[in-house]
Write a structure and sequence with these properties.
This protein is mainly beta and about 190 residues long. Helices cover about 5% and strands about 40% of the residues.
Amino acid sequence: LNVADKPDSQDICFVPNGDYASVIRKFKPNSFKDGDILDIKGNKIGRHEGIINFTIGQRKGIKIAHQKPLYVINIDASKNEVVVGTKENLIIQKIYLKELNLLTNVEKYNENLFIKVRSTGRLIKAKAILKNSNKEAEVKILEDEIGISPGQACVFYSQNKFGDKVLGGGWIDRTIANYLSTRLTA
């Protein structure tokens, strides 16, 4: 194929030489400013060299010794703070969906319901409440799952002896964890 030697596009493909940091430095220079690292109780436990170096769920590069592994739980750009906690603090308990596309009748959502939030992810037991004339949903996650973020797709499934059946899906607008609530911003 004529694209066989073309590099993979797994990063930000419109950035020259894959140097996304230079683009962010141009548009959001405060992303590189030193700031505080806090625990989930708000105690200052370290310093960082810019929020640009962190993503939610990150474990490596925090550079703080602790009895349990620490993960990035929240990034508050307005305060230039990074909040860290244990893996348990990342568990998502509830998600809110918008722009639903339902492929079956509404009663199916009260039965043996599962969701998938990554195409290669596992099916996760859940309970859904359809809202706003079935255009939105509140989904309670019944198994521990981390790494769910606003902007991702969520697909509904049912299971029976014949296999898995897609019931529909929507876009994740907001996530709720023990510690954190995140929302998709425009």
